Structure to design on (230 residues):
């Protein structure tokens, strides 16, 4: 009974757990198809599986913006082990005829690359399980530019404290490191945190272009540095 446009649809595939899978086209100097899990529990637009990243390297699809060893995921058994990951830019992803441009994301250790709930900021997603169809209807136009500047670090909670998960800017390598504890942000104390509050409230970086970061390094020394979006 929904008014759906078949021109904005593609085939939907279900894995062994009936999780919805779609195919999209990735474009740069060359193009390739990628299989993505629709994961509305993930709050970004796109997360790239580390396995897929290495597989697509020969196609020169992704522009590498940074490389860092660390962790960016927490599971049932705790924080994932430190692994080499990459911050990348994807010039173009095509979904059912719509073009999503200038996606910045990073690799993850999961088996699947994923589309997350932020896609709902730009259009209506309809999943038709019965007919195995996936629809994406953009709100305004079929070309969507999602470019945004990002801070040169990522953070991760552990044992009710906050730590540097990744450092993406080489200029910071001699100042802060993966695993440094974050003591404060813009003067606000983060020595003891509630992980549930941290994950359910707005991002501590939202609306800020620069932040004064205070960390405690592995030698027990406090370090202050101002980080900016780039």
């Amino acid at each position: 009974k929904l008014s759906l446009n078949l021109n904005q649809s593609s085939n939907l595939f279900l894995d062994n757990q009936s999780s919805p899978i779609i195919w999209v086209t990735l474009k740069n100097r060359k193009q390739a198809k990628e299989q993505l899990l629709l994961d509305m529990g993930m709050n970004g637009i796109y997360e790239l599986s580390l396995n897929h990243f290495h597989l697509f390297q020969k196609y020169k699809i992704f522009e590498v913006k940074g490389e860092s060893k660390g962790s960016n995921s927490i599971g049932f058994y705790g924080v994932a082990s430190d692994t080499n990951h990459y911050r990348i830019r994807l010039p173009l992803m095509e979904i059912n005829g719509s073009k999503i441009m200038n996606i910045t994301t990073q690799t993850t250790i999961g088996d699947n690359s994923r589309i997350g709930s932020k896609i709902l900021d730009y259009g209506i997603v309809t999943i038709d399980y019965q007919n195995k169809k996936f629809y994406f209807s953009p709100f305004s136009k079929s070309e969507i530019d999602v470019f945004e500047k990002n801070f040169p670090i990522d953070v991760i909670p552990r044992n009710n404290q906050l730590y540097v998960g990744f450092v993406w800017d080489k200029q910071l390598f001699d100042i802060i490191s993966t695993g440094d504890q974050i003591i404060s942000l813009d003067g606000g104390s983060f020595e003891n945190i509630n992980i549930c509050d941290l994950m359910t409230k707005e991002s501590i970086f939202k609306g800020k272009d620069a932040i004064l970061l205070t960390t405690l390094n592995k030698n027990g020394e406090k370090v202050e540095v101002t980080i900016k979006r780039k």
About this structure: The mean pLDDT is 92.
